[in-house]
Design a protein that fits this description.
The protein is mostly helical and 54 residues long. The protein has 1 helix and 2 strands, in the order H-E-E.
Length: 54
C-alpha cells in the first residue's frame, strides 16, 4: 500500500512538472515571441497616427 502511494505521488509530480514545462515553452515561444497582439484585445492602436480604434 505504501509503495503504491509513493508511485502515485511520483507520477503526479511528474505530470505536473511536464505540464509546467510545456506551459513555459508555450509562453516563451508563442506569447512572448509575438510583437503584435491580434487576438484577445478590445482596443488597439492602428498605424502610426496613434488613433484609438474600437
Amino acid at each position: 500500500m505504501e509503495e503504491t502511494r509513493k508511485r502515485l505521488r511520483a507520477c503526479l509530480i511528474f505530470v505536473v512538472t511536464i505540464a509546467v514545462i510545456i506551459g513555459m515553452v508555450y509562453y516563451f515561444h508563442d506569447v512572448k515571441g509575438g510583437t503584435q497582439i491580434s487576438e484577445g484585445t478590445l482596443i488597439f492602436i492602428s498605424g502610426g497616427d496613434a488613433v484609438w480604434q474600437w
